[in-house]
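User: Structure tokens for this complex, please. No commentary.
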Amino acid sequence: MRYKFFSDFRALQAKKGEEDCVYLKASVFHYLVGKWTVTRILTVFLSAFSFVMLALASMGYLFDRADYIARAYYNLAQRDGYVVFCEDGSFGEEMDGEKIAALQEKAGISFVFEADAGVSGWSHFIHGGTPPALQLFGGVVGSFGLAGAAEEYEAVGFTLLAGKYPDAANEVAISEIHYEALREGGYVDASKQFVWEEFMGEGYFVFDENLPQGESASIASYEDILGKTIGNGDVATDSHASSYTIVGVVQTNISEEELEEMNLSEIRTNPAAHLLFAEERAVEEPVILFGGVENRKTMRRCVRLILDWRQEQGGTERLPAPRDYKMLLPDDTQTDEWLIGVICGGLGGVLLLFSVLLCWHLATATLRLKEKKIGIFRSMGASEKLVVRLLTAETLFTCSAIFLAALLGTVLVYFLWLFPATELGGFGVSFLVFNGWTVFILAALSFVLPLCCTALPLKKFLKKPIVSNIAGDVSKKEA
Amino acid sequence: MFQIKDLVKTYAPKKAEPVFALRGVTVDFGETGMVFILGKSGCGKSTLLHLMGGLDYPTAGEFVIDGKSSKNFTKEDYDNYRNTCVGFIFQEYNLLPEFTVYENLAIALLLQGKRAEKSVLREHLKRVGLELDEMRRPPQLSGGQKQRVAIARALIKDPRIIFADEPTGALDEKTGKDVLALLKSLSKDRLVIVVSHDAEFAHAFGDRVIEMADGLIVADSAVSR
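Assistant:
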């Protein structure tokens, strides 16, 4: 007595190439697929359209402002190798050494430094004043001071041309731009010409050209500049003044196009950073430059930290602007994510109802049409599992068609219309994001909905005895 | 070998009185032979056949095959039973029109996990008196040919029991006799149970005749010739 159980779908397929056998490679599948082509096509396209709307709505509902800002600045960082945040002239919170260190540690970025703590007034150490070449940059170069370690500078593409990277608090390396300016004009020691003045409760150094200059020297090679000092203020008369010894010359790989946006000047050390950010010299300008940002996640962490600190200080969640960046900031922009969510969600929800009805109707009608044939099949020995597999395979085929149509539709709508319409110029980002979640939502809707609409009628269908299946027949064709 | 014990089948439609199609039927069958089940329309003979063939489930009672009771059958056991143990022949043939004749037979073999060799298919068609082109489809056949194909489809599984529900109901008398003669020849090495309302055919071809009325067996006798 053979009670062997054959549930493998492959049992229905004869081996290929055996011409003495009968093929049923896809016959049974085709047999179970079939009529109502127009209804199937309508179901696929209506469902796909509904899911496209819901996917677009999800972009609105999943909007994350911090992520939006982070993506924007990440793009800048990728493009330029760094991104600088500053208040564009206004003064805001204080970034002290502790916060900077925390930012570095928590964000995992290679280094953070406070820009605009550079050695201002260095151009006075050029004999004859600012050379014409530097006038391209508004005559002021050296507004940024970077504080990191050698490996950090090299990570962003700097190259040591001569000397070494600084490793003491009073050492500094200069960029090739500074070197060229000093070479062209010659070097002069102007430290004694800086005088301290107080104005409206604040003090700063001013350059008094009437005071006598110090020693001057011509600069013909890198070695000529090494060992020279630059600084601001009178080191003898004021504790705020500092003098620095030039110990290296660094190629900062700045192209001419970038020069107007970012003028890197001095290269400093971590000890110098701590000195700069010491409590008594708290930086007042919240200028933060990120270098070596490796990925979006890192940038997001940095942005989140800055936003948190701003909140602690009672400020708004507005990030400082990238220096010299005149375009609209991502955190200033009006984002209509709620509008997208409501409109697309509403439309998608209404269409979803029709999609569910169509899927259910298709499944029920298919089962009804095939009822007799399934009954005959089962009377011949086909198992319930096999029938479920065959019908599920047909539904999966429909699901796949819906998914592909919905995915294509979403991609086209997003990249051809939505993204260009909502892109924040210059940053290259939109507040609407097409990502893995979008694809996941599309896939979940495309497969879960039709399968559920098929599973329930199928379960009810299989409860009927086989003889009832064989007795029912709505087909016009009879064997 | 094959027994049915106190089989009961009750249909309980909504808003209607229940219908007692079978009221407790008990029969023992042998390994071979042709058994006719006779009765008027509505006596429960087709219901009995469907229950024995595993196409429906009893309200109460059981059938026993080789000592195994249907009360202990799972869904998979029923599938196996229909797949390997029984072959069914219907009044309306119930061939699959989208498939060729060969493919209709092949499905039965493939469901058992066997190769559908054309030589085997041809042999079984020959056994039922048919020599057909492999590309012929059921709509292109006569009633008698269709029923022979149906018999071949049931036979190719090598079942222990063949159930035939009014196999000659849609055929003319001569063709019907030919079909019954064929079934008779098959009954030499397996059990063939035929439901019919034609007593003349039953006594001409059957080895045993069971008469039913109102869901019960009223007579059960061997046919003497």
